[in-house]
Write a structure and sequence with these properties.
This protein has helices at residues 25-32, 48-61, 80-93, 107-119, 133-139, 177-194, 196-203, 208-212, 215-232, 247-256, 264-281, 289-299, 310-317, 346-358; strands spanning 2-6, 13-17, 38-44, 65-71, 100-105, 125-130, 144-149, 152-159, 164-167, 327-335, 338-345. Helix content is 46%, strand content 20%. Helix 4 links the parallel strand 5 and strand 6 (125-130). The structure holds glycine. Glycine binds next to loops.
């Protein structure tokens, strides 16, 4: 087992990575929350049949009284009415401020359960047990929790750091291939923004089998990068923005597909390709980088280009007339393995993006 510590003043926590941790959840959570009597587990109807009994059994063996909410899988679950339902169920269960909430599942479950934990009784302990690759390398670390509103994704939320993140690579074995590969888009992102050697390491292993053979190293490297970024900029006012490489255009792709046609990971994969082309056209990203990213994305079976109407892209990037100011901040690659926020005149970005995207 490997351990990483997210060292935030007064809210330090460990990320544990290791096979078999699902069955050892009880003792690990007990060590992180020595005084808690009850744990309310939030999961979904994909994950519950696979892992809920094992995890609850382990928690009970460690002396926790547990209750579980099994929610419908999918983004629609991350909504206000579901949050209200969870709050009521937690109160029915008798949750007190000494107790805790655990998220067992992917990003939707983690974000919703985390926001419920941040708000019920003005905040209780929160445990992340991520079971998708995307949740393990990204959403379970760093404390961003939220629900979606009709106006857009993640618009109501909080920064609420977990007490413990417990990730078992064995959970990835049951993921459908497209869900695994969608998580790989975020994995590649870490190579692009912070570690060129890691990018090459991933590019040389373009199959699930080869990647799973190195999964401990992959999870550790991604979480180590994320942890360092979060420790420097927990509240997302500076460095943390580099984690959004490929996400701005990616959000336009997700929106254009009505959030159903393309998964977040697929949209980010095509978004990273677009951001690399834009960076090269602006003279910031070296000319060979877009080709390298495109080849790595394609080798994983992820989209390198998504067709999207021009207005949606312009709006998502904040280049539209409604957005304030004449300058915008873009996350671009100065070289492979080094992302930087770059402030530029909107007009210049718009002209370049038009040639890059419309070709
Ligand atoms: N997923 C981006 C962040 O945690 O900041």
């Amino acid at each position: 087992m490997k351990t990483l510590t997210v060292d935030l003043p007064g809210r330090e926590y460990d990320i544990l990575i290791g096979r078999g941790l699902l069955d050892a959840a009880g003792e690990r959570v007990r060590a992180a929350c020595p005084k808690a009597g009850r744990l309310f587990v939030v999961t979904d109807d994909n994950v519950a049949p696979l892992y809920l009994e094992r995890v609850e059994g382990s928690l009970r063996a460690a002396g926790f009284e547990t209750a579980a909410a099994v929610l419908p899988a999918g983004e629609e679950t991350k909504c206000g009415p579901m949050l209200l339902t969870l709050w009521e169920r937690m109160m029915d269960f008798g949750l007190t401020r000494a107790d805790g909430v655990a998220a067992l599942g992917g990003g939707v479950v983690g974000d919703l359960a985390g926001f419920a934990a941040a708000t019920i009784l003005r905040g209780v302990d929160f445990i992340q047990i991520p079971t998708t690759l995307l949740a393990q390398v990204d959403s379970s670390v760093g404390g961003k929790v939220a629900i979606d509103l009709d106006h857009g994704k993640n618009l109501a939320g909080a920064f609420w750091q977990p007490r413990l993140v417990l990730m078992d690579p064995d959970a990835l074995d049951t993921l459908p291939l497209p869900v695994f590969m969608a998580g790989m888009a975020e994995v590649l992102k870490y190579g692009c923004i912070r570690d060129g050697e890691f990018f090459d390491f991933l590019a040389a292993r373009p199959s699930r089998e080869a990647l799973m053979g190195e999964i401990g190293h992959i999870l550790y490297t991604c979480c180590d990068i994320k942890r360092r970024v979060v420790m420097e900029d927990e509240r997302d006012t500076g460095l943390r923005m580099i984690l959004n490489f490929g996400h701005t255009v990616g959000h336009a792709f997700e929106k254009a597909g009505n959030y159903t046609k393309w998964s977040h990971g697929e949209a980010v994969a095509a978004g990273m390709c677009a951001a690399a082309r834009l960076g090269a056209a602006l003279g910031i990203t070296p000319a060979d980088v877009p080709g390298k990213i495109k080849a790595a994305v394609a080798a994983l079976g992820l989209p390198t280009y998504i067709s999207c109407d021009w207005e949606t892209i312009v709006e998502a990037i904040g280049l539209d007339k409604k957005s304030a100011g004449s300058r915008i901040s873009l996350i671009l690659l100065e070289k492979m393995g080094h992302a930087v926020p770059v402030k530029m005149e909107k007009e210049a970005v718009l002209r370049t993006l038009e040639t890059v995207y419309k070709g």
